[in-house]
Specification:
Shape of chain A: globular
Oligomer: heterodimer
Number of strands of chain A: 11
Helix content of chain B: under 10%
Radius of gyration of chain B: 14 Å
Number of helices of chain B: 0
Distance between the termini of chain A: 31 Å
Largest sheet of chain B: 6 strands, mixed
Number of helices of chain A: 0
Largest sheet of chain A: 7 strands, mixed
Radius of gyration of chain A: 13 Å
Strand content of chain B: over 45%
Order of helices and strands of chain B: EEEEEEEEEEEE
Shape of chain B: globular
Strand content of chain A: over 45%
Number of strands of chain B: 12
Order of helices and strands of chain A: EEEEEEEEEEE
Distance between the termini of chain B: 41 Å
Largest interface: A-B, 27 and 24 residues
């Protein structure tokens, strides 16, 4: 509905698994973002890409690895996660990096066992 | 450093009554301010933003917010609440000094009772 889709919507993984989250935007935007949303905490910005180039890596552990193959797609590769990484992972896009509004996907609910 | 405070975890309002969701911010330079709403099992949805100009900003679904520079506040308001307004509301700020990182508050849950 917002033009930003995320798959899967729900993911349960063990600490030794490797999985990937996918985000696709159909809005022709140039910037894409990954956020982590945990209960009763502010949204945490993880990564920002502009024109497929990473412009922000917000002190995120290396077990999270982003990939932006083109301006429409953004991935978050996950490996050897910890239970405290369980959260809602939100993808967003915006026309640019200035004053632009961000458009969010529905999120992937991740549970790490 | 930029920061956003939403002092209330939860706001309860009766349907038809006015509602206010509070937000204060701290930023170097002039702020760009945003309000987003999140319904269950959905991503955040843009409501309104203040960039410059008139301090009273009108947004979607009858919401408005007033920018108060002296109090560093950007409270969200609606004259008459609806049950369907029940959701999680996020205030966000970005500095206009060339940065692009938007800082979000922890969110305020609004309950509107019929």
């Amino acid at each position: 509905e917002t033009g930003v889709t995320q798959t899967p919507r729900h993911l349960v993984m063990g600490m030794t698994n490797k999985k990937s989250l996918k985000c696709e935007q159909h809005l022709g935007h140039n910037a894409m973002y990954w956020y982590k949303q945990s209960a009763k905490k502010p949204l945490e910005l993880m990564f920002v890409y502009s024109l497929e180039e990473r412009v922000e890596n917000n002190s995120v552990p290396s077990r999270f690895s982003p990939e932006c193959p083109n301006s429409s797609h953004l991935f978050l590769h996950l490996h050897t996660l910890q239970p405290e990484d369980s959260a809602l992972y939100l993808c967003a896009s915006s026309p640019g990096l200035g004053t632009d509004t961000q458009y969010f996907g529905p999120g992937t609910r991740l549970t790490v066992l | 450093a930029q920061s956003v405070a939403q002092p209330e975890d939860q706001v309860n309002v009766a349907e038809g009554n006015p509602l206010t969701v509070k937000c204060t911010y701290s930023v170097s330079g002039n702020p760009y301010l945003f309000w987003y709403v999140q319904y269950p099992n959905r991503g955040l949805q843009f409501l309104l933003k203040y960039i410059t100009g008139d301090n009273l900003v009108k947004g979607s679904y009858g919401f408005e917010a007033e920018f108060n520079k002296s109090q560093t506040s950007f409270h969200l308001k609606k004259p008459s609440a609806l049950v369907s307004d029940s959701a999680l509301y996020f205030c966000a700020v970005r500095a206009n000094t060339g940065g692009f990182k938007t800082i979000f508050g922890a969110g305020t849950r609004l309950f509107v009772k019929a």
